Amino acid sequence: MTGQWALGIDACKGGWIGIALTGDHACAYFAARIEDVVSQAETDGPIGAIAVDMPIGLPTDGRRQADVLAREVLGSRRATVFMTPVRAALEADDHRAAVGINRELAGEGISRQAFALKAKLLEVDRWVRRTPYRVVEVHPEVCFAELAGGPLPQRKSTWAGATRRRRLLADAGVALADELGSAGAVAGVDDVLDAAAAAWTARRVTRGQARSMPDPPEKLTDGLAAAIWF
Predict the structure, then answer these.
(1) How many CB atoms lie within 10 A of CB 32?
(2) CA angle at 139 for the pair 74 and 227, rounded to the nearest 5°
(3) pTM for the whole structure
């Protein structure tokens, strides 16, 4: 295969799913570890950029600007954006301790859903520091809002929501095949759509078309630049 891959990655049950784009061709990958998804994609061609649906850059205190801005953009769909917990909260042993730490340092608790992502959040935090590739953070609903010209009212778990998102991706040159191999047999519909939206953003990064919020990205004390790209 020729050309540079634009790789989008989303967390799913049991690991990670990746959708890689080159031209009008899309491939799907699944692995338990994010770096193994990248390794699989590397076997098909050179990677130009990677976009991941997971916070990159953990705050020491307070809220990240990226999360606040994403909620503003999504309006009625703002609940799909969780506020990234502070690093110390993610290092806590249990949810109750994490809530206390986050309230002390950020002025608010942390949902069980957010705390459940602890392992994957910290996995990305470690991986992004050692990968040679350019990696950006995405929020799929922000991507779909950009594609649609506004937030989508239907949840992606509904037939109408999934169909609309797949059509938006196809219109943008991201055609998902009905058959995605073993990755398609493991990942949920919403995971595939989110990884494809991330791949759309990664392709925009390779073309110099992507935008970020905030612009410029917020520099956090952990040394990472935090922004959501679309």
Answers:
(1) 9
(2) 100
(3) 0.96
